[in-house]
Predict the structure.
Amino acid sequence: MTQNKLRPKSYRRNRRFTLTIIIALIVLAVMIVALGISFGFVSILISAGVISVGENGLNDINLVILIMVGMSLVIGFGISIITSKTPLNPINKVISQMERLSKGDFSARLSISKPFGEHPSVSEFCESFNKMAEELGNTEMLRADFINNFSHEFKTPIVSIAGFAKLLKKGNLSEAQQKEYLDIIEEESLRLSSMATNVLNLTKVENQSILSDISSFNLSEQIRTCAVITADKWSKKEIDFCADFDEHTISANEELLKQVWLNLIDNAIKFCPFAGRIDIVIRELNGMVSVTITNDSRTLTEDELKLIFNKFYQADKSHSTEGYGVGLSLVKHIVELHKGNIAVKSENEKTSFTINLPLNQA
C-alpha cells in the first residue's frame, strides 16, 4: 500500500485548500504591487504639479482615482504576464506529458522542479500521474501479449480441426482411426468454445455494476459439481482431489459463481504436477463464507503474484500449459461484484486461492 493511500481524505483536502490560499495570496500580492506602483507614479505627478488636487476638489480627486485604477490594471496585467510564466511551466509540462500518453507513448513521466515540485499536493499529483502512465504501459504490454498469445491459441485448434477433417474426408481409415480423429475434432472444438466463452464472459462482467439473478443455493454442492465436471482432467493427471467439507448455503448469482469455481479448479489442475494434490476447504464465520483451493505447484514469485489477476497475464511464459490469461481476471471481477475479495498465497511449492464472500447479498 502506497503512502498516499494511507493518508486520510481530510489531509489531502487540507493540502489543496493550502495551495488555493497560496495562489490567492500571489494574486493579492500582484494587485498590491500594481496599486503601489500606480500610487507612487500619481504621487510623483502631484509633486511635479502635473496634477492638482487643491482648488478643483472632487473632480481632481476623481481624476487621480481614475488614473490609479487605470495604471493598476495596466501594471497588474503586465506583471501577471511576466510572473505567470513560472507557474504556467508545470501546467505546460503536464499538457506535454498528457499529449505523449494520448499518442501511445506510455514512457511519459512527470517531474516538476522547484519551487512547485516541493509542495506536497504537486508531489502527490506527479506520483499519481506516473503511476497511471505505468499502469497504462503495463496494460498495453499485456494486451499486445494477449493478442499474440490468443491468436496462436486460437489458430492451433482450427488447424487441427481442418487437418483431421481433411483426413476423414479422404476415407480409407479404420474405425479406430475415425473415432480417434473425431475425438480430436470434438476436443479442439470445445477448446475453441471455451476460449470464446471466457473472453465474452469477462467483457460482460466488466460492464456489469449491479448483481442480478440472486438466489439461495447449496454452495458445497455447486463446488462438488464443478469438481465432477473437471474430473476427466484431474483423473488423467492422477491428481489426489480432496473436497471434503460441510454443507453451506449462500445467496448469490449461481451461474456467475459456477464460473469462479470452474476457473479456479481448472487453473489448479493445469499447474498441478502429475500425481499431485488439490484441496478445497470451506469455512463459515461472521456472515462470511471462505473457500480456499490449494494445489501443488512451483512457488510463484512476488512479481508473479502481483500480476496474476491482471487481464491477459500468463504466469507460464513457455506456454507449455493451455491458457489465455482471462480466467483469473474474470474470477476477480465476479468476486468483487459479489462484494467479496480474493487473495493468493504461494509458498513451499503450494499455491492457494482464498475467496471470501458474504453469505447474503444485501
User: Anything to note?
Assistant: The first helix runs from residue 3 to 6. The chain is about 60% helix and 15% strand.
